[in-house]
Amino acid sequence: MDSIQGETSYDTIIIGCGMAGLAAGIRLAMFDKRVLILEKHNAPGGLNSFYFQAGRKFDVGLHAVTNFVPPGVKGTPLAKIFRQLRIPREAFQLNPQMGSRVAFPGVDLRFQNGFELIESDVADAFPGQIDGFRRLRAAVLEFDALDLDRPVVSARKVVSQYLSDPVLEDMIFCPLMYYGSARERDMDFDQFVTLWRAVFEEGFGRPLEGVRVIIRALLDKYRSLGGERRMRCGVRRILTDGPEARGVELETGEQLFARQVISTAGKAETVVLCGESEEAPAVRQLVGRLSFAETISVLAQPPAALGANETIIFFNDSPKFHYEQSQEPIDLRSGVICMPNNYLYPDGEALPEGLLRVTSLANHRIWKDYDEDTYQQEKAAWYPRIVDSALRFLPGLESSVIEAETVCTDMFTPRTVEKFTSHFGGAVYGATEKSRNGQTEYENLFLAGTDQGFLGIVGAMLSGISIANRYGLTT
Could you tell me the CA-to-CA distances from 441 to 199, 244, 249, 438 in Å, in that order? Predict the structure, then answer.
């Protein structure tokens, strides 16, 4: 290993062992780059990880792997990942969804993997809008969402040029916002395009054993290429010298040097690692305002046995869909219901227990300011309220039935998100303003992951690949 002033040196140091960091590390190590991935926490995966409780394994973040396409379909984001990382598709063990739904007062839009069902439902529920809906789809399919230097354009502004019914517009935005928008009430049009394709054109898949299957495949590949990884190894600061990043200083005081640094920690978090105060106005304005809470109910029977056979339901109970920072601890007006049992797993294979997950918008500051006793009391009080808010959109499934079938529960809040991801404000989707090209004020420090603007598990891996290709393999 080379050395600078007697210290260990790498071609690239990557901060964060999530999907983006692992994908970037694999791509670089594939071309014999000396790569080190540093992770503050003890589990890999970042925003899409897993944990153990009461003898059970719980996924964090994974409702679905988007962009699912059948084997053999080429030219898709998923196919690009397998090709660029040289990982066989079988390693991810993906199974397609049964079917999902957007549920608003008095109207539902169903969708499966592929566009036909949602197009049919829009034609039935909004006959006066179907021509505009089809023109919007054509615009989405023609748009080059991978142009990293394109200026930001409001998705609401673009969509309103094609749709005149505010309910249909909100129903289209609801799942796309919940699956990746860091902006309140709107999103960047390039992100809208990416998510439209991921959710409506391609669809959802999931490994039977959850996100750890994907993490294991990435770790095995990275390890086989000789990449280095250190867990429970937090970065105290990024070492800079004029216009360059020279390496990192760990929380232990050890210094490591590299020709370049890729940070998946987040935009605001990376600025702080470079020496800026977390309370500086320039940093605070980067911190996203959106965070979430989620309940997990482990059931004695699968949801389908209780009458719920859909995969994911995006719901809203109000005339207007409000995707914004909650003014209460939890915003019960809308949310996401996920039932991981309801995928088309191979014959004879199934999850050992039923799972019902409900995600809601939540207020980070309120949850963070609770003392520990109050925090636990509020979690206990909000858990049944969140579940009951979701059951309104699961006809025939009563609260008493869920209560009787529940054998184990858990719940995370924005406070949990901040603790285990180190994202300021518990902002799952990071900064409102993204750095599409991954560049920072330092010529060899780059951003990858959420704050590059790529979304979800597939987006995170594509982000890592794109940054590695653009900067790590061309210098």
Answer: 34, 9, 19, 10
